Amino acid sequence: MAIPSKYVRENMELFAPFMKPEQVIVNVAKGLERGTLLRLSQVIRQCIPQCAVCTLVGPSHAEEVGRGIPTACVVSGDNMSTAKMIQSEFISHTFRIYTNSDEIGMEIGAALKNVIALAAGANDGLGYGDNTKAALMTRGLAEIARLGVKMGGNPLTFNGLSGMGDLIVTCTSMHSRNRRAGILLGQGKSLSEALQEVHMVVEGVNTAKAAYDLSKKYNVAMPITETINKVLFEGSSVHDAVLELMSRDGKEEIYY
Amino acid sequence: MAIPSKYVRENMELFAPFMKPEQVIVNVAKGLERGTLLRLSQVIRQCIPQCAVCTLVGPSHAEEVGRGIPTACVVSGDNMSTAKMIQSEFISHTFRIYTNSDEIGMEIGAALKNVIALAAGANDGLGYGDNTKAALMTRGLAEIARLGVKMGGNPLTFNGLSGMGDLIVTCTSMHSRNRRAGILLGQGKSLSEALQEVHMVVEGVNTAKAAYDLSKKYNVAMPITETINKVLFEGSSVHDAVLELMSRDGKEEIYY
């Protein structure tokens, strides 16, 4: 099931009467529900409580999986025996699957990486270099991890395929719509112009708002997310935003 | 001081008589000493014990720093007051510096990322996609972190600029000689042909051997490092090596 996050609840409510308790739902959507700020596996469980739900995420552009290009993902679930069942069902020579019991960390990483991809795309659109982008991605993952840990996630999950791995592929691949939207913003287009040109759902825009709301709810400093929100929804210039991020006081690298 | 790691000791011995105790040495070299397997800051301290030594690393291709492109690095040292002094001396609007007290983790990440860059380059040379490369980089950092933690590093350091950040820039930028050497290996060239074509020091080749020795010394599983060693020094084919990595048994994602 890879449908835009805003349609997950209504679709799950439609599916619910037809789902049998022995069926396992594998959630591959990446986002947060607007308003409730719930992870999508939580939304699915609310709608279809009779079924076990697993979440399968990681750096896996469908364009490449379909061509048999070697890909590695990670699966979590209500309990690890279900996750291990999904692992053994789907694993192959070209599709490698790890298990991880930290569903919270996995889903927060998979969802919020799209926000950082907007920033990484903007970096590319502005013509900044590899150093700046690597720093943005690293500090972006650091703020995602700070939030995820406050929400109950394991800090090491963010080092993994659903965190760092998915972030890398989303920030560097032309398959990523979030990155493409960011490039257009960096080139000076407005949000509505960028969305019209990408012409597909750009999850990072909705997730940026939800991530900002979560940062306030959990009282976590998320300077890149905050800056992206200013660019998306308050008309800040992308160029000034990068300068603002670079001119904060010197900090220690690790803090939660 | 950014000289190849194999010449650090002899150069430091030459410098030693001229260094005054109030001088601070900022180490920006990335590698391990062959044979002793020492980090380079350890080598410098052995040769010049009268001086404080800091280590400054992170995603910072000199080609971009010199052009004023925004860059972020991290500094550590014998004590944090020296590191903070270096932070405040070097920080600017285009060069952002964090501090981290974990010198071991920083130097292990900065050195061993060159080994993973050889693998990432080979991935590109083979024509594999973004998914495979993101997985290689993520699992590569996981094995670097496993080793670094056994050596006394903080697992969170590997999430930072010296770990993930430097790994990203080295594995994705054409400025990286290690990646360029890996691309040539992926295209079927021999190690000596690749080194001749890159025509500059490729630290990852020496570091691969040292990393393998460290993995045995500390009894840490490092499948990517082991595979790269087979390709570099035992004539294994790059194509078979990737298949071998992908067909290991299903594992849990996080283990130390």
Describe the model:
The structure is a homodimer of 256-residue chains. Chain A is α/β, with parallel strands linked by helices. The first copy, chain A, has a domain at 104-246: N-(1-d-carboxylethyl)-l-norvaline Dehydrogenase, domain 2, CATH 1.10.1040. Chain A is 55% helix and 9% strand. Chain A contains twelve helices and four strands; from the N terminus they run αβαβαβαβαααααααα. In chain A, strands 1-2-3-4 form a four-stranded mixed beta sheet, with helices on both faces. Chain A is globular and about 55 Å long. In chain A, 55% of the residues are buried. The model of chain A has no long low-confidence stretch (mean pLDDT 92). Chains A and B meet through strand 3, helix 4, strand 4, helix 6 and helix 7 of A and strand 3, helix 4, strand 4, helix 6 and helix 7 of B.
Strand content of chain A: 5-15%
Query: What is the helix content of chain A?
Result: 55-70%
- Using the coordinates above, name the CATH class of the domain at 104-246 in chain A: Mainly Alpha
Summarize the largest interface: chains and residue counts.
Answer: A-B, 64 and 64 residues
